[in-house]
Specification:
This protein is of the alpha/beta class and about 425 residues long. The protein is about 35% helix and about 25% strand. The protein folds into two domains: about 290 residues, 3-Layer(aba) Sandwich (Aminopeptidase); about 120 residues, 2-Layer Sandwich (Alpha-Beta Plaits), CATH 3.30.70.360. The protein has twelve helices and 15 strands. A hairpin with a 5-residue loop joins strand 1 and strand 2. Helix 3 packs across helix 12 and helix 8 runs antiparallel to helix 9. The protein starts with a helix and ends with a helix. It binds zinc ion. Zinc ion binds next to loops.
Length: about 425
């Protein structure tokens, strides 16, 4: 079956441009989960599903679904999915490329009357990006039964409770205490995503076939010093919380660099969020809160990192003037993609005549949550200079199109394997 790249390119371009319009106009491209723009974009997607005559529904976890029923009677399902929410001031491709390529595959299958031995669904997984409730991958965690009572009852900065928002968008959080019933019927969850790194672009490779997704840990660090007059308190009389914090920031950066070199596996750590109180020019900082983000494909390096960081904080608490507390606030384990699906993705890329390589993801994805329970796998396509989670994020439409061809081939290969 020949895939019409020309049609594909114009279709993908149009849909990506359509979705880019649903943004906070002052901070492009911003479409935070549950925001007005997010609701508008979901309505747009519903219309796209309707125009393909798909069965449209929202599951208990708030995922928006467009389904094509198989001609044969079956409960089995192959899921194509990604997400349409963005980070604040994010890009036009993260998640979106996956949704648009899924629409494209679905359209091709319908227009060419390709019969499948399973139902085929497109999922817009709810709230993939880290949100104001300090949780990412809400919808995919929901499918896998990983949204705990504690998570569902979290309040965001303006007092909204997460479960209320999920219910408002069409979910039903009463049924999220275990995996959704669809899970047992899933043959495969497949996702196309931009790489968000530089490897494919630099090596001029079309497709990255993802083998694993690193563990993600987040720690909240509170540094309590003593605020005071910046003119009158002498240098040796201070408990400056920001100065103590800067020591931790530098320590974390050097530690992560060393462990990444030692382990030779994916290992990165970042302090990207910090609040200083009272944050005034003439006051010694009395309190700092910061979030450490740690991603590791190596269990032993992760353990070593935590051990050394705890020792450092203990030492600072003993010898310094500030009181430091560290708490683990989030953890998603290291996961491997389904080995059979990884192989099939590689075969699919090869039969499309596209260069490809097996690789590890640096970022977390819905597929990581799903693969804890069901067979799941994903592919990456190149993006410009590895830029992502910023307005400059860019992927060539032709590259998305090539990835789409692999996604279609993958569905066809699964159809062949699952035919009785
Ligand atoms: Zn994404």
């Amino acid at each position: 079956m020949k895939f019409d790249i020309d049609f594909n390119v114009s279709y993908i371009k149009e849909k990506i441009e359509n979705l880019a319009k649903f943004t906070d106009p002052n901070i492009p491209f911003t479409r935070i989960v549950f925001s007005e723009q997010f609701y508008d974009a979901r309505n747009w997607l519903k219309k796209e599903f309707n125009s393909l005559n798909l069965e449209v529904s929202t599951d208990n976890a708030g995922n928006l679904i467009g389904s094509l029923k198989s001609n044969i009677k079956t409960e089995k399902v192959v899921i194509l999915g990604s997400h349409i929410d963005t980070v604040p001031s994010g890009g036009r491709y993260d998640g979106i490329a996956g949704i648009v390529s899924s629409l494209c595959v679905m359209k091709h299958i319908i227009e060419n009357d390709i019969s499948l031995p399973f139902n085929l669904s497109i999922y817009d997984y709810l709230g993939e990006e880290l949100n104001d409730w300090s949780i990412s991958c809400v919808g995919s965690r929901g499918i896998a039964g990983l949204l705990t009572e504690e998570i569902l009852n979290r309040q965001n900065s303006v007092g909204q409770v997460l479960k209320d928002e999920i219910n408002k968008i069409g979910g039903n959080t009463k049924f999220l205490d275990k995996p959704l019933s669809i899970a047992k019927n899933i043959i495969a969850c497949l996702e196309l995503h931009i790489e968000q790194g530089k490897i494919l672009e630099q090596k001029k490779i079309n497709i990255g076939v993802v083998r694993s997704i690193p563990s993600i840990s987040r720690f909240n660090v509170k540094v309590i010093g003593q605020a005071g007059h910046s003119g009158t308190i002498l240098m040796d009389q201070r408990a400056d919380a920001l100065v103590a914090s800067s020591e931790i920031i530098t320590f974390v950066n050097k530690l992560a660099l060393r462990l990444s070199q030692e382990s030779n596996q994916h290992f990165v750590s970042t302090i990207g969020k910090i609040t200083v109180s009272p944050n005034a020019a003439a006051i010694i900082p009395g309190k700092v809160e910061m979030t450490i983000d740690l991603r590791s494909s190596s269990k032993s390096s992760r353990e070593q990192y935590i051990k050394e960081l705890e020792e450092k904080i203990e030492l600072m608490n003993k010898t310094g003037t500030c009181k430091i507390d560290m708490n683990n606030i989030a953890y998603a384990p290291f996961v491997e993609m389904d080995k059979e699906l990884v192989k099939l993705f590689k075969d699919s890329a090869n039969s499309c005549g596209l260069t490809n390589q097996i690789m590890d993801s640096g970022a977390g994805h819905d597929t990581a949550q799903l693969s804890r329970l069901v067979p799941a796998a994903m592919i990456f396509i190149p993006c410009k200079e590895g830029l992502s989670h910023c307005p400059e994020e860019h992927a060539e439409i032709l590259d998305i199109s090539k990835g789409t061809a692999v996604l279609l081939k993958m569905v066809e290969n699964l159809a062949m394997l699952n035919r009785a």
